Amino acid sequence: MISLTINGKKQELDIDPDTPLLWVLRDELHMTGTKLGCGMALCGACTVHMDGTPVRSCSIPVSAVANANIQTIEGMNSVAFQAVQKAWRDLDVVQCGYCQSGQIMSATALLQTNKKPTDEQIDAAMSGNLCRCATYHRIRNAIHQAADAIGKTASTVGGKA
């Protein structure tokens, strides 16, 4: 029996400890927002947050995350996540959409640690996420827009605006 914390909820699963986290999420817990892309941790479609850090769930055995806090796209609700979602819609980032949950998870992680990233910082943070439709410029622009929105929200909440 393996005990996991997924999106803040404890899960007890009778599963092979070598099963990749991705398959636990999709097949056992029916959380299909996390996608299988390459199965080798190269494309980023399977990105989830482990203790706030983006990781590739296709290559992590479930036994390795037993004491971690795992966040999937289904459980995201931070200010950064909401700003990223809005920017993605505003700038019509998505084409086919398959990679986008992983893209959004990586972009959210970036903005949770860096409120005003440069193009170079965005490119570095997003380098593990591949997009077959090549929406990279729109993704970068959306991250900048989300960062600006977060900055405005922080100013308003802080009483400066």
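Next protein, fold it too.
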Amino acid sequence: MKQHRLAAAVALVGLVLAGCDAQTSEVELKTPAQKASYGIGLNMGKSLSQEGLADLDSKAVAMGIEDAIGKKEQKLKDEELAEAFAFLQKRAEERMAKLNEESAQAGKKFLEENGKKEGVVTTASGLQYEVIKKADGAQPKATDVVTVHYEGKLTDGTVFDSSIERGSPIDLPVSGVIPGWVEGLQLMHVGEKYKLYIPSELAYGPQSPSPAIPANSVLVFDLELLAIKDPAAPAQ
């Protein structure tokens, strides 16, 4: 799957470059098609750079496309191309493994320091929380559906999701969310606000659910428990 994605990315960059002259300064960006072509190339270039492929030779990519379109004899054998793709794939995987390990170590260090702060409680699972606003409402069970407001951030403060920003709380089953939420929600009383610091193993672990959440990320949530839904109440 990754090899196909890599090959597709390189191919798309080549298609964009194929329509350009050797000197990019000579390329006009006037028509919608020209502007869209530039935008595709820009986005793909950023993506490839993030994948550790910033050293791809754009002229060589364009040459390959031109040879194919012109039905010229390819300058490299299929075996050489396969070897080159394998090299790039291996390098990208090694880079990603290094980044994931660095993220895991940074998360561990963050939690170690955060756990020393006044008001932060660390549970047996490693979940950390602060009570921001106390209340004496009911506590949800794992089988309940609750209404919450939340904002999720990375440890550097980057917001990746926020019902607060959308201005719309959500209903969700307590048992249907990440483990850190399952545990945290059952500690709360209706009306309370918590700040949860969720270790990666209680969130998404080595998997990245979206580009906004890197693998092995510690997640920080501002969470308000608004209500426990009455199972007998009609759905709205």
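About the second fold: The first helix runs from residue 2 to 18.
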